[in-house]
Design a protein that fits this description.
By secondary structure, the chain is of the alpha/beta class. Helix content is about 30%, strand content about 30%. The two termini are about 30 Å apart. GO terms for molecular function: hydrolase activity, acting on glycosyl bonds; kinase activity; metal ion binding; pseudouridylate synthase activity.
Length: about 230
């Protein structure tokens, strides 16, 4: 059978609202609301599949219409969704954001309770599939104990990490060296290394710090400025 990548992480619905005119706070603003399939892990799985890499997604959705929408969208990108579990009581994760007049996020609320339900037992039940993966990608939306279990149990497979956010990066600071490839942004790289990144030199120092802990490839994303790569 063909080689494949396993992605373990969040799947959610992105709801985005933008007003037709300048936002009036404490009031109802006419505008547009769009809904799309999101989630860091799910987006990675879809993108891998779109560049013709066989991909399996491990995640949680609710037993609801939004969960069906997510599974359908992910399947239509040819991702294997048979390992996406449905939770009987919690709703599918949603990320709700309101854009300001410059189309930047003004405020957002994320309901990601469901991904906290992912357990070590869930991972154990898929061990045959995970063991045969060419690469395992994880995002830090999943619980800390699950991340630690994966890094211990599947150290023989290249593990790729997306730290997701500053808040969630704290989950992996002490085990960063267990990952083959990591993709922090500048702020996440600063948090992981304790090095303030102000120029090329300090960025190189931060990348070397992560490399020296055991990572083989480091991609530091820099927004409009592109990506800094080190191996």
């Amino acid at each position: 059978s063909e080689p494949y990548v396993s992605v373990i992480g969040g799947s959610n619905i992105d709801l985005q609202g933008s007003a037709d005119n300048s936002l009036l706070l404490n009031d109802s603003n006419p505008g547009e609301i769009s809904m799309s399939a999101g989630g860091v892990g799910r987006n990675i799985a879809e993108n891998l599949s779109r560049i013709s890499i066989a991909t399996k997604m491990f995640s949680y959705v609710g037993a609801d219409a939004l969960g069906e929408f997510l599974i359908e969208k992910t399947q239509s990108a040819n991702v294997d969704t048979s390992f996406i579990k449905k939770h009987s009581t919690l709703p599918t994760s949603q990320y709700l954001s309101v854009l300001d007049d410059n189309n930047d996020m003004l405020v957002s609320i994320s309901d990601m309770r469901i991904i906290n339900e992912m357990s070590i037992e869930d991972i154990k039940s898929c061990s045959n599939t995970l063991n045969q993966s060419s690469v395992i990608v994880i995002d830090t939306n999943i619980p800390t104990k699950v991340i630690q279990y994966i890094t211990d149990e599947y150290s023989h497979i290249p593990l790729f990490l997306d730290p997701v956010s500053i808040a969630k990066t704290s989950k992996i600071i002490n085990i960063i060296g267990k990952f083959h490839t990591v993709k922090p942004n500048r702020l996440e790289a600063e948090l992981i290394t304790g090095i303030k990144i102000t120029d090329k030199q300090s960025m190189l120092k931060a990348a070397q710090n992560i490399f020296n802990r055991g990572c083989k490839q480091i991609f530091i994303t820099l927004g409009k400025e592109g990506v800094f790569y080190y191996d």
